[in-house]
Amino acid sequence: MNSVLISGAGVAGPALAYWLRHYGFAPTVVERAPAPRAGGQAIDLRGTAREVARRMGVLDQVRAAHTGARGMAFVNAAGKRTSTMASDALGDSGGVIAELEILRGDLVRILHEATDSGVEYAFGDRITSLTQTDTGVRATFERAAPRTFDLVIGADGLHSGVRSLVFGPESRFAHDLGAYICVFGTTQRDDLDGWQLMHTVPGRTAGLYPLPGGEANAMFVFASPPLEHDRRDTAWQRNVVATTFADDGWEVPRLLGDLSQAPDFYFDRLSQIRMDSWSDGRVALLGDAAFCASPMAGNGTSMALVGAYVLAGELATAPDHTTAFRRYEEVMREYVRRCQKFALGGVDSLMPKSRMFIRMRDFSLRVVPHLPGGARLFGDLQKLASTVSLQDYRGRSLTSS
Ligand SMILES: Cc1cc2nc3c(=O)[nH]c(=O)nc-3n(C[C@H](O)[C@H](O)[C@H](O)COP(=O)(O)OP(=O)(O)OC[C@H]3O[C@@H](n4cnc5c(N)ncnc54)[C@H](O)[C@@H]3O)c2cc1C
Questions:
Q1: Is 370 within a domain?
Q2: Ligand 1 within 6 A of CB of 7
Q3: How many domains does the chain have?
């Protein structure tokens, strides 16, 4: 077993390619976008994922690209802070906001650079069919000539093409969380001083996130039944966001003013991918493609990095790919289940049904950290992120089949 085709050069794909290369495999990564995709939210590297980054030798680069986040505050329509939570209030071991926050685009770039030698990348292409035989998987592509690989891994995100081709339509595995998320770059802001600001009204939240260099991202999340639309129609998506938040106070009108021009616009339905099995023969899924927990989990990127480490390590040490895929699931299942469960609380918190709930949320954010044991309560996310303990696969011998 040697050649591995990976679909997707987001977070999971390059991380898997790194570790496969490390163990002597020949990975090829095919990515639909013409280049590594910039943009997207600030994301947190938590718990075990930091150890994976350290073992990959990229932790210092990740730390250097830290967004400088200092905390999170909810504000009312007049901009007055109703509750705050400092990143360091509970130390590195606790807190909803992790200390190690980085822009998704920066992480994708760092992972791509860490794999630019020894890993074959094909940008601007995608798999169009996969046919499994006893000895390999024949892949056809939109642009490149057909090729046969020993294994194929779908690391192509929430709307995975590999999953659709091999496991069936997305509707069979997607569990709807009843809301949409939108993120885009907004006007330069030097006054945020590292603080994320969020304004909630029943059913929706608008947010402003400081980025390095005085830049800032706007974020909008809103409860809504699924709306009929073409996923590539960004004009329609921008219009839905503008209409939904049209009557809100705080800085919302100004943020909406930047919406139509924002080049790095991200819009998606909040949903989770839940599957009974992440593999079928010689094809397996990784990251959001297999177990998306939604941005509400605050752990999607960490799960992708840890999953890549485990999958590559098991492939390098198991007697065959069937055993490796089974062990990968055994190691990851409980971690994934708990992250997906945690995300459901995030939906309630950012899209509360009533003003009463908003007041209760703000009250608990103000009070709980100061109560005995409060720090532990808020440390749940960090604890969750350390659910998986990493094996030292390097210490185990390589197997080929
Ligand atoms: C542009 C972008 C912005 C994002 N912004 C946010 C955000 O603001 N907040 C948040 O919480 N999460 C965001 N995410 C999701 C977040 O990055 C993932 O939850 C997490 O990092 C898990 O990584 P992943 O590699 O499994 O999936 P992803 O990071 O989604 O990467 C999947 C990759 O596969 C590629 N791809 C998709 N379909 C195909 C195909 N058919 N063939 C080949 N390649 C394909 C995509 O272009 C992408 O590069 C964003 C994802 C993208 C792609």
A1: yes
A2: yes
A3: 1
